[in-house]
Amino acid sequence: MKKLLKEFQEFINRGNVMDMAIGVIIGGAFTAIVTSLTDNIINPLIKAICGGNVGEVSGLVVPGTEIDFGAFISAVINFLIVAAIVFAMVKALNKAQDLGNKLAHKQPEEEPAPAPVCPFCLEEVNPGATKCCHCGSELPKSE
User: Fold this and answer.
1) If you write DSSP's letter for every residue of 16-37 in order, what string do you get?
2) Residue 57: what are its φ and ψ, rounded to 5°?
3) 124 and 117 in contact (C-beta within 8 Å)?
């Protein structure tokens, strides 16, 4: 159970999860502002460009329904603005974390060297071994 909790803590403290959480929070906060922008400023501009009222901008009418292109365009613009803001915020946070790591002299963890492989049977062997434990072949000396 302790191992599971430790793994969960490492997962939560990983940068990607924090970026995602910040993105969700910032995205939620900016959604209301951007929705207001598209509903109150951009939609009237679209209607003015099309030269008509709401019924003329909505476009295609199918019996019993009405397809509102203005609302669709507004939703697309809304999404693009929120996505750009969240991207900028996450990018700034990553840059700040990199700068903090650089100031703290933290180096990214290096990956361990891959284990040597027997050239005959292609199985892993212990570093420094002179014979393959799988096929018994003499291994070439490594430098």
Assistant:
1) HHHHHHHHHHHHHHHHHHHHHH
2) -80, -30
3) yes
Closest to 96 (Cα-Cα) out of 26, 18, 6: 18
Mean pLDDT of the chain, nearest integer: 75
> What average pLDDT score do residues 121-125 get?
85
What value, to the nearest 5°, has the Cα angle with vertex 119 and ends 113 and 123?
Answer: 65
Q: What distance in Å separates the CA atoms of residue 83 and residue 26, rounded to the nearest whole number?
A: 10
With DSSP H G I counted as helix, E B as strand and the rest as coil, what are the percentages for the chain, rounded to 5? 60, 5, 35
Give the dihedral sign, CA 19/21/25/31: positive
Cβ contacts of 95 within 8 Å, gap of 6 or more: none
3-state secondary structure 42-75: HHHHHHHHHCCCHHHHHCCEECCEECCHHHHHHH
Question: 87-114: per-residue pLDDT in tens?
Answer: 887 788 788 888 888 888 766 667 777 8
CB 122 within 8 A of CB 134: no
